[in-house]
Amino acid sequence: MNTKFTLAIASLLGSVVYNFGQTKPQPALEKIVVDEYFGEKIEDPYRYLEDLKDPNVVNWMKSNSTYAREKLNEISERKNLVKKLQELDARKESTITELQITENNNYFYLKRNANEENSKLYHRVGYKGAEKLLFDPETYKKSAGVNYNISSLMPNEKGDKVALEISPSGSESAELLIVSSDGKLYPEVFDRCWYSSPSWLPDGNSFTYTRLNSSNVTDPNRLLNSKVYYHKLETDPNKDIEFFSNITNPELNIGAEEFPVNVYHKNSNKNYGLVLTVDNRIKLYTTDFKDNYAPAKWKMLVDKNDEVTNYLVDKEFIYYLTFKNASNFKILKSLISSPEIKNAITIVEEPQNGSITNFTLTKDGLYYSLTENGVQAKVYFLGKGKPKPIELKLPFQAGSVSFLTINENKSDIWMTFSGWTSPMKRYLYNPTTNKFTFQPLTKQIEYPEFKNIISKEITIASHDGVKVPVSIIYDKNIKLNGNNPVLMMGYGAYGVSMEPRFSPGFILPYCAYGGIYVITHVRGGGELGEAWHKAGFKTTKPNTWKDLIATAEFLIKEKYTSPKKIAIWSASAGGILIGRAITERPDLFAAAIPEVGAFNTIRSETSPNGPANIPEFGTVKDPVEFKALLEMDSYHHIKKGTSYPATLITAGMNDPRVIAWEPAKFAASLQNANASGNPILFFTDFEAGHGMGDSATKIIEKSSDVISFAYAHTGHPKFQSSKK
Prior knowledge:
Blueprint: E1 2-5, E2 33-37, E3 40-44, H1 55-73, H2 78-91, E4 94-101, E5 106-113, E6 120-125, E7 132-135, E8 148-155, E9 161-168, E10 174-180, E11 190-193, E12 199-200, E13 206-211, E14 227-232, E15 241-244, E16 259-265, E17 270-276, E18 283-288, E19 299-302, E20 308-313, E21 317-322, E22 330-335, E23 345-348, E24 355-361, E25 365-372, E26 376-383, E27 390-391, E28 400-405, E29 413-418, E30 425-430, E31 435-438, E32 453-461, E33 467-475, E34 486-489, H3 507-512, E35 516-520, H4 530-534, H5 542-557, E36 566-571, H6 574-584, E37 591-595, H7 614-617, H8 623-631, E38 646-652, H9 661-673, E39 680-685, H10 696-712
Helix pairs in contact: 2-10, 5-6
């Protein structure tokens, strides 16, 4: 690929024009760069916006943000909506997440009370034990404008210590800390961590963890050549032993973009080395535990060709979840003494209807969940020594289910169920009596204002006749007269399913204003198994946005709504979905809201998180994959003189997943190309990242922005601008 500068259209060389004297910022100027890929020349007029350290670029982003905030604040009902969401949030006494239970019944979890911005780390012994605060992020490195958030936690087996990750202002660039069960904070601080998966070792005073190259979210080498280290408490982290990496184990051919993780397993007394990327297929190795933690010799158990996505271990067997020759997944097992997958036998066959989405082990056997069309969950149990699994009768029909167990030595298993209109509920299951016991960790809240909101599941024919699942959530009293506001969303990447989740802070409030919320389970997701993922993947990616377009056309045909009443919304990789939908069919939508979206896919590879995403989207170094990347590149499909829908584009300056210049370039191009009178707003949050780690206030503000902007441009009378 050759690059050359061919034209710089600017009145002031090397600068962006901006004007704080006008309410509306001036457009970004073009300075065209030409790239050549396999003989094809591609013009890039806003390449200079990739320099996020350039004060002119930053000022252009800030001026756009100020203007966008003014316009959003002018939406008349927005303040009332913020108050409603605050009241709904305050109605919950507390929210508990990241629960971990040790073998000796120590509970560690994050809890945010109704009057608090962020979750804090708590501990108790037993379900009914006295609660104790262990760590409050608000007391950590107090600094103006910095919001610290706990992103993960992992207790040791004894329950006397817990490792936690804490990061500032949504950056996910975390520091790993160790806290004792009596609240003591150990002196060691481990920077350059990002979901580092600390694994405690048998002595309870040492662990392995994964470390990145850099804490800087804009460093292009940040995620390359990550390494697993061994650490013993109260020693210098700078002297930690490098245990598992492409340096210590060159024979494993760990790629620079691959993420190594070590997990110690007690019963087998072995370490399990995983090598991960966004590709859902793992590579798995094992080695015997040794106290000295010198670099080890690893035995391969699973290669990517085995198409394994998860594994579990008990005293006798290792279990594999795989989609090889089984798009809906199947479960295999091998003896610990011969753990290679080539020795495995099938114990759960691929289901004909639905896809296996999760599995877990207890003392009594194996549990797994099966989801049909991504929206109806079932749970099965395969008891030890039993030939076939049995389906469990659940407390209520659930859209999604998650499992929590202590380990394979205990019978305890908790299942949490949820649906679009069913609040999340947690149950303890007893396999002996076959009974579920409701065991909430917080007080259950009623939402009578949402009692008339219902959901239904349908399938629609897409552009090629393939049936696509669609979830529709609305007030049962609305009339299908073609005049209803609609907010559509989808995602369609990484095989991730849009599972039903109860949402009193977004979906239900949107519907309470009379709109219809629609989730299109587009190809690229995992709702119909791995084949569904691969049907919206690299060269098949156009199916992702064409499924959304087909859903909009269906809703219009069936009198749910009309083009002037449809808003579409997504985030992150969902930016491809929204960006390409409005560049392919700008006439079909009234508004679009892509948050922290991926828009410039032929350049994403140059960003810090880009190389890790090559397995999902492709590389410009391959001619076929380059064509696929160009086709999904929304930025390069914008056409000057086109009437585009009203669009709200957002970015996070601390975003480690989608670098802020991708939304910036898309916004600059769309603003200049748009021939309609519809606003193209661009808002960068300079104190946030990809959305993870947002404070309660920031979450409410963002939800209010999306709902308000969607309603403002789909004709809702309450959401019109207060300034004409």
